[in-house]
Please model this.
Amino acid sequence: LSKNRLELLGTADQLSVLMHFVQRFRADEGLSDGDAFALELVLEELFMNVILHGSQGRSSPARVAVQLSTTTDAMLIEVEDDGTPFDLLSAPAPDLNLDLDQRPVGGLGLHLIREVMDHVDYQFVSGRNRVQLRKTLTP
Amino acid sequence: MHTKIETQGAAIVVSPCGRLDFAASNDFQVQMQEILAGSGKPPVAVVIDGSGMEYISSAGLRVFLVAARSAKTAGTQFVVCELTPPVREVFEVSGFDRILTLHASLPEALSAVEHATN
Model:
């Protein structure tokens, strides 16, 4: 098992475990504040998304695997879960021009993921959701 | 995350300190509801001082959206100031700079609130 891989249950109390894992990766890789912020944000949104959507119609929480790595100029994130199939790329973009009273409460998490990352890919492979993301590192 | 609450003139200044993630958002939501309800009558103005807020996710943004709506309904001014650069970026990417009143500094926010009250 790679040191940059984490497996956990898709329950809200595991978010702190995930964030601890991110903090260690950040320190090991010497990520900038901005890149670390983006990584934390994207992983929280993905993880909470699995909790909200991935457990629908199931009696037990989804299992989630997170793998982080860096290349010379980018960080790569892969999140897999065995929850309900959910293509986050199919979610409609929120209308940011709506006024305060009309803005829906929610729906921003997936938008943030797409905004913060340079590349997002979704596949449903062998009964698992697989999201692969890439962000160019701040020089 | 912890939250500091103090009164400055007609305004209640709320300073969330730390990370406003999913885990912290429920408590903060409850706090904001209590502050906006006031004791007996809704406050004239609520200023959120974001200088201590290191992180925010969509769960945190939701608290701001709900609070701003409650404030509007109650006739309470609701302004946000001193956002740290990464948090401000999340607000901007989400279009929250269009639906909320953002000020660069706390004195600026307090002065804007004061002028609107008088």
Remarks:
- The longest strand of chain A covers residues 128-136.
